[in-house]
Amino acid sequence: MKPSEDQLKERAKALKLYGLLSHWEEIEENDWIEPLIHWEEEARVRRGLERRMKGARLGRFKPLADFDWAWPKQCDREQFNDLMRLDFLTEAVNIILVGPNGVGKSTLARNIAHQAVLAGHSVLFISAGQMLNDLAAQDGDSALKRRLASYARPQLLVIDEVGYLSYSNRHADLLFEIVSRRHEEKSTLVTTNRPFAEWNEVFPNASCVVSLVDRLIHRSEILTIDGESYRLKEAKERQQRQALKRRQKTTAPSKKGAKS
């Protein structure tokens, strides 16, 4: 069904094609107007996706099609599938992925973030260490306020690997500030290898830890993953393949021996 003139003008206005609109009466009878607007809409969508993908800083990651759901001893796949529908973003709910090292927390977090980018949301994926050290390195209040605002801005902020390092009171205060700015406004996704009861060891002597955890879990959904390290499993399988190749080389008959 061919769009009406009013619909085309609204689409041109949404694209801010003001030059085209100012000459509308001169060109409205031309058949190329609709494909021109359609091409511009497609280009805007493509550029927007490219811009969001670059800004998300997801890096390379394993797609869900390659994720071994049978490996973790505990991982609620149905709960994860619900998260992939992204309803939590409209409700400003936080997501916490908890589990030991190597069970796929970062992989699952990146897939959620990637889905959010494809759905048109602004996303930033960053490790806890990188973000907190970046904030702590800001010189002066104005620079710090600008950087805090940049971390508070994305519709989804993914803070990866909380708990792998210990941080100072200053770092704890900065993380609390980020979480507080986003609280009940935007969603924050955190991956951690430590249960919340152990966060006092991540931020030793920090007085804000209880308040920090309280803000995170107030409006949150927690996905617990348990099992052996998948990276360790892959390393063992790689070693086994290499050992098999070496045995095959040593037992294979040489060309000289084969001729005799």
Strand proportion = 5-15%
Q: What share of the residues lie within helices? A: 55-70%
Radius of gyration using CA atoms only? 26 Å
The string of secondary-structure elements, in order, is HHHHHHEHEHHEHEHHEHH
Described by the principal axes of the CA atoms, the overall outline is: globular
Order of strands, widest sheet: 2-3-4-1-5
Biggest beta sheet summary: 5 strands, parallel
Q: Would you tell me the structural class of the helices and strands?
A: alpha/beta
**Tally of strands:** 5
Q: Helix tally? A: 14
Q: Catalogue the unreliable spans.
A: none
For the termini, the CA-CA separation is 79 Å
Describe this structure in words.
The mean pLDDT is 91. The longest helix is centred in the N-terminal third of the chain and has 24 residues, at 33-56. It is built from 14 helices and five strands. The chain is α/β, with parallel strands linked by helices and 260 residues long. Helix 8 (128-136) packs antiparallel against helix 9, helix 8 (128-136) crosses helix 10 and helix 10 (169-182) runs parallel beside helix 12 (209-218).
Q: Which SSEs are present, and which pair or pack?
A:
Blueprint lengths: L4 H10 L3 H5 L1 H4 L5 H24 L20 H8 L2 H4 L3 E5 L6 H14 L4 E5 H9 L4 H12 L3 E7 L6 H14 L4 E6 L6 H4 L6 H10 L1 E5 L5 H22 L3 H5 L1
Parallel strand pairs: 1-4, 1-5, 2-3, 3-4
Helix pairs in contact: 4-7, 8-9, 8-10, 10-12
How would you sum up this structure in a few lines?
With 260 residues, the protein is of the alpha/beta class.
Notable traits:
single chain, 260 residues, alpha/beta, five-stranded parallel beta sheet, 11% strand, globular
